[in-house]
Structures are given as C-alpha cells and as structure tokens.
C-alpha cells in the first residue's frame, strides 16, 4: 500500500481547495473517474504540486459564513454601487494615507515609502503596495505580468463592492484615479484581518479546505486525508499491514454513502406498494369515472360554444335596438318642432285682419320693392368692382413701397446703421416701416435724413483725423527705414570682423597639429617602455611554467589518494543500492495490495449506488402513478 510523504497533503489541500472554489453549487464529488487511493500520494499530488500557483488559487479559501449575501461582489448584479465614502475629500485622503503608511511601516514594507510618495504614487509603486498588502494574509502571492487585469479580478474575488477598471490602473498616479485605489487599499487592510479571524471562529482551516454541502457532515477529501495520516503514522511506527486502517475507512465510507435513510425508504416502499395494490383493484370504477368525465367535458364544450353564440346574438340585437332608439328620438324631436311651427302659423292666421284688396296692394308694393332691391344690388356690385380696382392699384403701390423700404433697410444693416444697438446708430432708429398706418416718405424726410446728415458730418470729421494720423505714420515709417539702413551698415561691419575671427581659428588649428606631432613622439617613447615590460613578462611566465610542473607532481600524489577514497565510496554505494532495492520491492507489494483493496471498495460502492438509484427511480414511478390516479379521481 503506497502512501504519500509528509509534504504531500498540503499540496493536495491547495489543489482541492481550488476545486471547491470553482464549484459554487458545492455538490458532493463522485467517485466515478476519481483516481484510486493508491495513486493519491504519487500522481495526483505531484501533478498538483507542479501546477503554477496562480493568484486565483491563493484566494480560493475566502470564508463563506453561510448567511444570505447582500449582493455586493456577487456575479449577476447589473446596478453600479455608488461609493459613499468621501474619497475626494483632502482630509479623508490624508487620514487614509496615514493609516496606510502606519500599516506598511508596522509590517516592515521592504521598499522605500514616505507620505509624499503615497500622495501621488506611480503604477509600479501601487502594484508593489497591493502585492504586499494582499501577501500579508495570503502567503506566496506575487505579481503577474498583467497587473492591470489581475488587480480588478483579485478585488472582485475577495468581495470588494466597487469597480476598479483597467484604465484607472493604467493611470494610477493621476489625481482623479488615486483616491479610488487608495480607498481600495484601505478596504483591504481593514477587511482581511477580520477574514483571518472568521477562519478561526468558524471551525478552523479544515472547514475552508474541506468544504461540505448542507447534506454532508464530513467531506470525502477529509476522510481520505485522515486515512492517509493514520496509515502513514502506522507505517512510521513499524507496521507492515494496515487492515485496521482499511476497515476504519471502509466503515466511514459506507456510513457516508448509505446513511441512515435506507430502512425508512424500505418502509415507505412497502406502504406505497400496498396503496398501489388497492388502487389497481379499483381499475373498473376508475374507467367508468374517466368515461363520465370525458362525456361531461364534451357536454361542457358544446354548452360553452352555445353560450358564446347566444352572447354574440345578444350583442347584435342590443346594437340594432340602440340605433333604432336613436332614430326614434330624432324623429320624435322633428315631429315636435313641426307641430310647434304649425301652431304658431295657425295663431298668426287667426289673428290677421286684412282684406283681399289689402293683400293685393301689399303684393304690388312687394314687387316694386324687389325691383328697387335689384337696382341697388347692381349699383353695389359696380361700386365693389371700382373699390377692387382701387385696392389692387393701392396694393401694387404698397408692394413697391415695401420693396424700397426693405432695400433701404438691407443697405442700412450692411452699413451697420440698424439696429439701434450698433455703434453708428447710437440708439437711434434708422429703419423705414411700410404699411397703411405708416408714412415712409415723411419719416425719411423728417427723421432719417437729418440723422444721416449728422452721421455724414461726423464721419467726414473722423476721416480727416484718420488722414492726419496716416500722414504721421508715413513720417515714422521713413524714420524707421533710415534706421534700418544704419543697421545694415553695422551688420556688414560685424561680418568683416567674423571673417577675421575665422582666419585666427585656422591659425590655431595649425598650432594644434604641431602639438599633435609632439604628442605622437611621446606615444612612441611610451610604446618602447611597453616593449621592455613585455620582456619582463616573458621572464615571469618562464617562472610560472616551472611552478606549474611542481604543481603537477603534487597533483599526481593527490590522485593516488583520491583513488583510495573512490574504492571506499564504491563499496558504500553497493550497500546503499541493495537497501534501496529492498525498499522498492516492499513499496511495490504495498501498492499492489492497495490497488486490490481500492478496486473491491469501488465495486461495493458502485453496487450500493446502483441499488439506491433503482430504489429512487421506483419511488419516483410510484409517486407519478399516484399523482395521475389522484388527478383522475378529482
């Protein structure tokens, strides 16, 4: 039976912990496809030990207290939580910087740190501080190449309720980004100590390494880990067989997989079978009831269709009745009005006291009045035609006046005389208005023309002043041109001086070349001295060769001594290999026994699981049949 070394379990603890952190449903792992117990100490542990320790594995053991989550830091929230802390307040920032500085100094931060550096640090300094703060509680945490992506992922993993984006980390030292990052660091140094206390208050580190679901009391990984410890302790105490440990782990696994509910399931199964037998005896009665139910359903469908048709017919009759009632009301109203007119005419007819001659005379007067009315209407039509012609002429004149006024107003706007707020208008209105109530000619002669004359006079005065100023500027320009000619003459003089300076530079170059020749002569003398030193070096090398031959002689003596030591070492190696071979044979025998035990145990577990699964399926079938029976009865 092969067992892992002491260094094995911690590696497996980290690997299993990572597996639990990636399985949020906390389902109990199945034994199907699981490596055998014999390979637990070798292949599985070595594979986990050789894995790269990423930052995700470091944070997989964050405590889960079992109470309902508030939604902060949980996947699935779409609303953005607003940070209520005054992170842009200078006093709050100074307080946070002092708190962070005290934390770093008290925990021996390995890099240079000061309050001035923490006011606006660079991205590199922030990543170092972040690595140190997180590494205080999760040992071994190191920076990764892309910290801009790592920091938001770690903050989300440890439950930080606010969002830190990648762009903020790219400009960590900017004034608009650093307050958010400073608040995140303060949250880490305040929250992670409480997380470490929660691990101790909720069952120790085992409760987080070996997570269990609500239906489990002990996880399968914890059982295998405890069995490995017991077996290794027995092996270290000199035991050759491990039957007691095998029996213990078999009992624990059987207790875990079977549980205490098998007898209850059997009792429930017998009860359901008896009920099923009673139900099967009443099949004929159930068939009759079903046929009656089907007939009632058909009758119900026919009756519902008939009721819907009656409702539609009733709606049509009601609409027709309503339209007829409206028509009847209108006809009755018309009849009443006609009756009232008839009574009035009857009263007038009864009251009149005219004779037939008076009636004829009134008719003649009516005809003469109609003729006069026709004449007057013709005269009115002629007058209306004259008025129309006059109004059309007036409209044309008004259009021409409006065009002239609009042309004038456009010119005034171009000359900046309109509106009154322009500089030339000076609060006066130069516009001309057209219309029936306006007098554009009088307004132009009385108002606009005098104002334009005064404006013209003031403009001519300003033009004379500008011409005078222009004459002065021309005089100043002539003076400037004279000064420019003088400056050109001085420039030519300076160029001549520059040419003379160039000639002096050439002479200095020639002197430097002569100095260079003297320096080369000195170099040749120095080289001669170097040759003399090389001759001296040859003499020293000859002395070195003589000493080397003496060293070889001493080395030969040393080799003889080494051969004696090698022979002694060979004898010791033979004894060591013999001991290793014996240990390997014993290890292989233990592995074979462990494989056999594992196979038998897995076979038993599979049979038990198949039996339990069969019982569960039978109970589900019975429940479905009972539900169908109850539904049919109801």
TrEMBL record:
> Bias category Basic and acidic residues: which stretches?
13-29
The residue ranges of the DUF5595 domain are 215-280
Region Disordered, as annotated, extends over 1-49
Which InterPro entries does the UniProt entry name for this protein? DUF5595 (IPR040967), Kinetochore_Ndc80 (IPR005550), Ndc80_CH (IPR055260), NDC80_loop (IPR057091), Ndc80_sf (IPR038273)
Matches recorded under Pfam families = DUF5595, Ndc80_HEC, NDC80_loop
Residues folding into a coiled coil are: 262-386, 477-564, 598-632
What is a single cellular component term in the Gene Ontology annotation? nucleus
* GO BP term, example: cell division
Q: Where in the cell is it found?
A: Chromosome, Centromere, Kinetochore; Nucleus
Transmembrane annotation, as ranges? none
Identify the residues that the record assigns to the Kinetochore protein NDC80 loop region domain, covering every copy: 373-594
Q: State the UniProt keywords alphabetically.
A: Cell cycle, Cell division, Centromere, Chromosome, Coiled coil, Kinetochore, Mitosis, Nucleus
Cite the Kinetochore protein Ndc80 CH domain residue spans from the record. Answer: 76-194
Role this protein plays: Acts as a component of the essential kinetochore-associated NDC80 complex, which is required for chromosome segregation and spindle checkpoint activity.
Family recorded in the similarity comment: Belongs to the NDC80/HEC1 family.
Subunit arrangement?
Component of the NDC80 complex.
UniProt-recorded name of the protein: Kinetochore protein NDC80
Please tell me the species this chain comes from.
Biomphalaria pfeifferi (Bloodfluke planorb)
């Amino acid at each position: 039976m092969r067992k892992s070394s002491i260094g094995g379990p911690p590696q497996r603890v980290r690997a299993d912990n990572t597996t639990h952190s990636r399985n949020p449903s906390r389902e109990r792992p199945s034994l199907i496809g699981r490596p055998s117990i014999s390979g637990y100490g070798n292949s599985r542990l070595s594979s986990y030990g050789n894995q790269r320790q990423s930052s995700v594995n470091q944070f997989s053991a964050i405590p889960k207290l079992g109470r309902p989550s508030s939604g902060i830091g949980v996947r699935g929230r779409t609303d953005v939580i607003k940070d209520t802390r005054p992170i842009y307040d200078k006093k709050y920032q100074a307080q946070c910087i002092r708190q962070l500085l005290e934390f770093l100094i008290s925990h021996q931060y390995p890099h240079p740190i000061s309050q001035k550096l923490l006011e606006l640090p660079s991205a590199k300094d922030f990543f170092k501080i972040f690595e140190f703060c997180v590494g205080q509680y999760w040992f071994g945490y190191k920076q990764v190449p892309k910290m801009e992506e790592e920091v938001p992922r770690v903050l989300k993993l440890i439950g930080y309720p606010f969002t830190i984006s990648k762009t903020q980390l790219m400009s960590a030292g900017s004034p608009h980004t650093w307050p958010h990052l400073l608040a995140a660091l303060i949250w880490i140094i305040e929250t992670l100590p409480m997380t470490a206390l929660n691990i101790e208050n909720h069952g120790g580190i085992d409760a987080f390494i070996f997570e269990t679901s609500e239906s489990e009391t002990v996880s399968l990984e914890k059982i295998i880990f405890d069995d490995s410890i017991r077996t290794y302790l027995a092996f270290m105490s000199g035991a050759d067989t491990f039957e007691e440990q095998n029996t213990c782990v078999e009992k624990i696994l059987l207790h875990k997989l079977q549980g205490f509910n098998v007898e209850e399931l059997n009792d429930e199964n017998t009860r359901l079978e008896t009920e099923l037998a009673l139900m099967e005896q009443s099949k004929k009665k159930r068939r009759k009831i079903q046929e009656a139910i089907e007939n009632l359903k058909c009758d119900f469908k026919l009756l519902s269709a008939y009721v819907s048709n009656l409702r539609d017919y009733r709606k049509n009759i009601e609409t027709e009745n309503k339209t007829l009632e409206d028509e009847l009301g209108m006809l009755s109203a018309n009849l009443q009005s006609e009756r009232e007119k008839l009574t009035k005419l009857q009263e007038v007819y009864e009251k009149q006291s005219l004779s037939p001659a008076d009636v004829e005379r009134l008719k003649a007067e009516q005809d003469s009045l109609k003729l006069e009315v026709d004449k007057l209407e013709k005269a009115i039509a002629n007058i209306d035609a004259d008025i129309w012609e006059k109004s059309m002429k007036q409209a044309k004149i008004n259009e021409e006046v409006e065009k002239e006024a609009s042309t004038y107003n456009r010119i005034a706007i171009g000359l900046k005389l309109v509106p009154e707020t322009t500089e030339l208008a000076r609060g006066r209105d130069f516009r001309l208005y057209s219309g029936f109530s306006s007098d554009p000619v009088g307004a132009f002669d009385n108002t606009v023309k005098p104002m334009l004359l005064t404006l013209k006079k003031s403009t001519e005065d300003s033009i004379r002043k500008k011409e005078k100023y222009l004459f002065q500027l021309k005089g100043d320009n002539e003076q400037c041109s004279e000064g420019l000619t003088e400056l050109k003459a001085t420039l030519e003089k300076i160029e001549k001086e520059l040419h003379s300076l160039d000639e002096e530079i050439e002479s200095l170059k020639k002197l430097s070349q002569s100095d260079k020749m003297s320096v080369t002569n000195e170099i040749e003398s120095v080289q001669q001295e170097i040759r003399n030193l090389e001759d001296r070096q040859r003499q020293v090398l000859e002395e070195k060769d003589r000493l080397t031959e003496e060293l070889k002689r001493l080395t030969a003596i040393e080799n003889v001594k080494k051969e004696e030591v090698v022979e002694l070492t060979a004898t010791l190696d033979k004894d060591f290999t013999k001991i290793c071979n014996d240990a390997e044979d014993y290890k292989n025998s233990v592995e074979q026994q462990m494989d056999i035990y594992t196979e038998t145990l897995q076979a038993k577990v599979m049979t038990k699981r198949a039996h339990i699964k069969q019982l569960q399926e039978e109970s589900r079938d019975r429940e479905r049949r009972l539900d169908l029976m109850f539904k049919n009865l109801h």
